[in-house]
UniProtKB/TrEMBL annotation:
MF term (GO), any: triacylglycerol lipase activity
PANTHER family reported in the protein's UniProt record: AB HYDROLASE-1 DOMAIN-CONTAINING PROTEIN, HYDROLASE, ALPHA/BETA FOLD FAMILY PROTEIN
InterPro entries hit by this protein: AB_hydrolase, AB_hydrolase_1, AB_hydrolase_fold
All residue ranges annotated as the AB hydrolase-1 domain in the record: 31-284
Any one Pfam family match given in the protein's UniProt record, by short name: Abhydrolase_1
The protein's name in its UniProt record: Alpha/beta hydrolase
Length: 306
């Protein structure tokens, strides 16, 4: 594993909150913003992965904690939504009232670009981060050079659901003691990585769990993020009007967001390219970094000034 120098974490005001962020690569490089998924801190973008991405594409790679997670603002005063009630309302086609939605989180991204003095950036989003990136494409396209959606969905009705095991870990509360959290973290990722074995990743689970735990957990914030996903509904009709150059990456063995969801994203966005990766689940496993990084670097190079 490549050793990467420790990052200097900063906080910037964006969209009336504060976002914690750090960066990799040449500060003068073409900016690339990484947007992470539900309940995931920015460190879920592995340091070595970010360094490879910066080197391969000549990018200034920026990762950040979404609102309500990690070291970014926790919106405690907004309360804890009733997820079960929201799911019932969503299935009934009723409008949802939630603390915020994914469009607000896309505005956070734009606010961070503003704070960093960046006019346009390549955007790479994973899972919920991919949905946030889609909202950027719909509402803030002029701020984007390109978009890469990884293991995400349009939110359209009728798409395949998660496996029961993946659904169970999605809704399992994180323990509040470190030993219990470490075991919980390993179980979650063992399921989300899918049926294949990834010894290199599994060997680092304890280290990753410690890093996340020490940066701080916010279960209420995860619930608010999940409510935001539910409230944001079906983006597919709006995505048909998107003209941001798009690459879709999805694993064939994704248990949480099945590959048909990624195919749907690629079908919805005109001109989108689809890269299906055999054996990849709902994770970015170390053996697949070269393929993922090379695909993103090639995509951003083709649209460096689009």
């Amino acid at each position: 594993m490549t050793t990467v120098a420790p990052r200097v974490e900063r906080r910037s005001r964006a969209n009336d909150i504060e976002l914690a962020w750090d960066s990799f690569g040449d500060p003068a490089g073409s900016p690339l913003l990484l947007v992470m998924g539900l309940g995931a801190q920015m460190v879920a973008w592995d340091d070595a992965f970010c360094a490879r991405l910066a080197e391969a594409g000549g990018h200034r790679v920026i990762r950040f904690d979404n609102r309500d997670i990690g070291h970014s603002t926790h919106l405690t005063l907004l309360g804890v939504p009733d997820i079960q009630a929201l799911m019932v309302q969503a299935m009934a086609g009723q409008p949802l009232r939630t603390p915020y939605n994914l469009r607000d989180m896309a505005a956070d991204c734009v606010g961070l670009l503003d704070a960093l003095g960046i006019e346009r950036a390549h955007v790479v989003g994973a899972s919920m981060g991919g949905a946030i990136g889609q909202e950027m494409c719909i509402h803030h396209a002029r701020r984007m050079l390109s978009f890469t959606s990884i293991m995400s969905s349009t939110g359209a009705p009728g798409l395949p659901p998660p496996t029961p095991e993946a659904m169970a870990v999605l809704f399992s509360p994180a323990p509040t003691t470190f030993d219990a959290y470490q075991a919980h973290h390993a179980k979650v990722w063992r399921i989300l990585r899918g049926p294949a074995s990834f010894p290199l990743d599994e060997a680092r689970d304890a280290e990753k769990a410690q890093l996340v735990f020490l940066r701080g957990l916010n279960p209420a914030g995860v619930a608010r993020q999940l409510a935001a996903i539910l409230a944001s509904g079906n983006r597919k009709p709006a995505l048909r009007e998107v003209r941001v150059p798009t690459l879709v990456i999805h694993g064939d063995d994704d248990p949480l967001v099945p590959v048909a969801c990624g195919v749907d994203v690629a079908d919805a966005i005109p001109g989108a390219q689809l890269l299906r990766i055999p054996g990849m689940g709902h994770a970015l496993p170390i053996p697949m970094w070269p393929q993922i990084v090379d695909a993103i670097a090639a995509h951003t190079a083709r649209h460096a000034g689009s």
